[in-house]
Every structure is written in C-alpha cells, then in structure tokens.
Amino acid sequence: MDLQTITYLVVGATFALYIGIAIWARAGSTSDYYVAGGGVHPITNGMATAADWMSAASFISMAGLLANLGYGGSVFLMGWTGGYVLLACLLAPYLRKFGKFTVPEFIGDRYYSQMVRTVAVVCLLIICVVYIVGQMTGVGVTFARFLNVSSDTGVYIGMAIVFSYAVFGGMKGITYTQVAQYIVLIVAYTIPALFISLNLTGNPLPMLGLGSNMEGTDVALLDQINRVVVELGFAEYTTQGMGSTLNMVFFTVSLMIGTAGLPHVIIRFFTVPKVADARYSAGWTLIFIALLYTVAPAVGGMARLNLHGTVNTAVGITQDAKGQLVVNAEAVKAQPDLFAPEASIKYDERPEWMKRWEKTGLLKFEDKNGDGRIQYYNDKTKNEAVKAKAEAAGWQGNELTVNSDIIVLANPEIAQLPNWVIALVAAGGLAAALSTAAGLLLAISSAISHDLIKRIFVPHLSEKNELLIGKISMAGAIVLAGYLGLNPPGFAAATVALAFGLAASSLFPAIMMGIFSKTVTDKGAMAGMIAGMFATCFYVFAHHGIFFIRGTEYVELIGGPNSFFGLTPGAFGTVGALLNFAVAFLVSRMSKPVPQEVQYMVESVRIPRGAGGAVAH
Questions:
Q1: Residue 507 and residue 451: Cα distance in Å, rounded?
Q2: Same domain for 516 and 446
Q3: Which of 409, 513, 563, 605 fits a disulfide with 559 by CB distance 3.0 to 4.6 angstroms?
C-alpha cells in the first residue's frame, strides 16, 4: 500500500476516534464545560495535561531546535519541564483549593476588583491568541506535506475537527480526547526514534543510544556528530550555547514561570476531585511529558547526523538492503575528507523524501557553483581552516536550506523507515497541534463567557445561557484561530516566545502573590501586571516589530539587538516578572490595606488540610 493511502487511513482513523470520544463525553452543564465536572482522575488528567502542553512546538519544533542548537537547546527542556515542578509545588494545589473555574476568577476574587479581573482576562486572551498561531500553522504544514492538500485546506479541516469535539464537549470532551491524542502523539514520536537508535547504535532506547557508540565502531555517536558539524563550519554540538550564561539562565527561568503561568495549563488542575489530586496530577504530567522530552535530544542529534549523512557520503551513513539508513563502520573509522569532490551527493540522485519536502518550500536547494552536487555546510563560519577547505574544494556557499520544523516530520523519511511509521508521525503531529489548540480555545471561551459576561456584565445569567454563550465564544475563537493560521504573522516562532514572556510577566506573579502574600492590593496587582506586560512587549516588539509587522522594528531605539545585558527577547519575560513583583509591592505599600476577609481567604487557600474539598462555583 502506498504512503498516501496509509496516511489517509491512519489520520482518518484518529480523527474518527476524537469525534467519537467527543460525542460520548459531551458537556451537559457549565461544570462539565469548564472543568469536566471536577471528577477527572489524576492519572487521566496528567495524560490530558501532557497532551495539552505538548503542542506543535514540542512535537514538531523542539527536536529541530535541539538539532540546530545542540547543548544550547537544553534550555527548552529544562524550562518547560521545570515549569511543571513550579506548578506542582507552588500553584496547582492552592488554585484547586480555591476551587473556581478560571485563572481570572481567582485573580478577580483574590484582588477584590472587577478591574483587576478584566486586566487578567485581557492578559489571558493575548497569551492564548498569540500561542494558538503556532498550533494552526503546524496543522497547515502537516496537512500540506502528508495529506497532499494546500496548507489553507489543512487549516480548514483542523478547524472543523476541533469544532466537532471542543464546542460540544467542552472541557469534558477535550479531556478524554486529549488522552487519546497523547497516546497517538507519544507512540508517533517514540517509534521512529526506536528504529533510528537501533540502526545507528544497536541500542533500541534512544535516550541511551545518544550516549552509545555507533554500530560496529568504537566511535561515540556524539563524538561523530561533533566531528562532522565542526569540520563543516558549525558550532560544536555538545558545547554550543544560546548567548551568555546570564541569557541562558534568564531564558530558562522565563520558560519555567511562563509554563507555570499559561492559563490553558493551569485550568486543567481545576478538573480533579480533591486538592491533593492536583499535586498528584502535576506529578503524572511530568512523567508523561518525560516520555517525550527524554527522547527529544536523541531525535534531534540523530536526525542531524542522518541529514548530513544523506547529502555527504563521507559522514559514514549509508543505506542497507531495505533502504534504511545505517552506519558505514569503515567510513566512520577512516574519517574521510568531507570536502572531497565525490563526497557530496548529486542533486539528481537525491532521495525521494527531499523531492517531497522541496514542494512545501521548507527545504530548498541552490546550485551556487554549478557542479550539480549538494554542498551543505556553514558558509558564515569564522573558522579559517574550514573556509580554506571549502574554497579549495570549489564550494561557493551553502546550497541546502532546511527549515528546523521539518526535522521530526521528515525524520522517518530521512531514515527511510516503513510507510506506516511515516503516516503515524503525521497523525502525531496533528494530535499535538489539535490538543493544544483545543485547550487554548477553551481558555479563551471560559474567559469571555464566565469571567467577562457572567461575572462582570450579566451577573444573573442562567447556567443554560452561560453554557450557550460559552459554546458561541468557542466557535468565534475557532474562527479567529483559523484566520491566524491562514494569515500568520511574520515571526510565528517569536509569537510563541511572546506568549511565554507574557505569561511569565503578567499572570504568574499575580497568582504567586495572590497565594503567598496577604499584603498585595488590587491596585498593586493591576499595576504590576500592566508594567510587566508592557515592558515585555516593548522589548520583544523592538526586535520583531509592533505586533510582528515587518518594518516596524525599533531596535536602535533601545541601543541595538539584545542591548539589555545581552538578553534575547525570549529571555526578557524574567525581567518582566521581576518588574511585576517590584511594582506590585511598591504600589501596595502606597494604597489601602487588603480587606480582612480577603486575608482570611488567602490563609484558607494556603491550609493544605482540614478545610474540606474544593468548592465548584
């Protein structure tokens, strides 16, 4: 059976499963719609939260980042997983003890102000909207490559699938659908990695294979990757960083507190029956996430070696009788010249997977020296020895451009794995994007219907009408998400970074101070959120343009790129959070004290035992 037919069957079967679950678990009340009735088992919720979290960025982009950044990409692993430690220890049990439906509801009640609630809703909507861009774009890319339809058509199909289970099922439908999506995406991620690790190292466990010797040699896999990338002018894989140590630390912290402040993640911990279950749920989430995140470095490293080995025969990667990429032990031991004329493969003899990905525009070739061969190296290297070798070989610049986002999706094709594995990866990529999109859409829907309309504008709204407005809000949010997927801003990756920066600099400090401080006032919290959000947006927009519109950058106004102690825009969320804390405490000292009943509420939320179960509404 050909690849296209298998892909249609596998993806179609998963879509049918999602819709079937949604019909079975449709929401019948606001409690079902917002928090799945508050009765989800911690293990089930942990799996659903893992799917909610492991977005297109995790499934599609992270291994590509690790492939390109090497050791420096570890900040994403540490930051994103570290955020769940913060959630488990500092946020989840206390928010579940408070027992309401949404993050703005906690902030509004804790800071006894509708204005603060409104600011929190605005922050939440901005965070979710900019984050959802990457998910819908990921859906379009995956459909375009594997289902042989246009990217726009892919977005429309994705909108229809999410609509079918998110609007009618609410949190209840989304929860059980995300459990199925987690199973699909984790199987799709790990099976190709098992095949590739076994072929390259003889070890079927990728996380161990990354530290093993290459099959039939005494050369460590990481040593071979280092040798190849350094000789081709790239930074050493195992030591390259992301700027200064300060930048790496701030970047990691920004991802950690940004993760802990993401509203679509926090809302999941309102779905478990008891306060203790919130912490257990966060622990299970870490375990389920670790299954993917411990494999990701191996996927990135092995994919990079296979990519170089595909276009340069001197790397020591060849095809076996089945067509799969395996180790050429003799070449690995001999370490032949990577710049030899016959080492670069002929463009006309490139593998089929390259031809397929060229159609998407995510892989491009330009024959700069007219020899009909593919030269893939870093032509901007400062290594004079590499420059001299390239010039002597007649190389006139890098000829292959590879978008990092295709690393995971193309990985089984690069390794020449069976068609069913390739189809499974397509289903996994779609599951990752759709699961996170659904969680974000629910956060948007609940913020509009519950926090704005129910709690501010129409306090006496009936449960039936609130549920109806929630579904209408969800439908509207899906249309907006689809529009952004069809017309993504210029810097899609930067918008995701901004989502983390905004969550880190606005919601996370407000929640932390709301739980652990009885002295922060409504005015202090509001001033802190506005200050943190404004500072983060100002720095990010200086580099990437106002609302990511090309030509509106004003980086020279702030003294040049990364002018604030060498911090990149992605690391600035930490500065925004510190500013939020400082402004909130300063303004609180100059305003009226927190009412006594609110102080009692804070004390009650912090008591771990003896206060009964969390209240629903």
A1: 15
A2: no
A3: 563
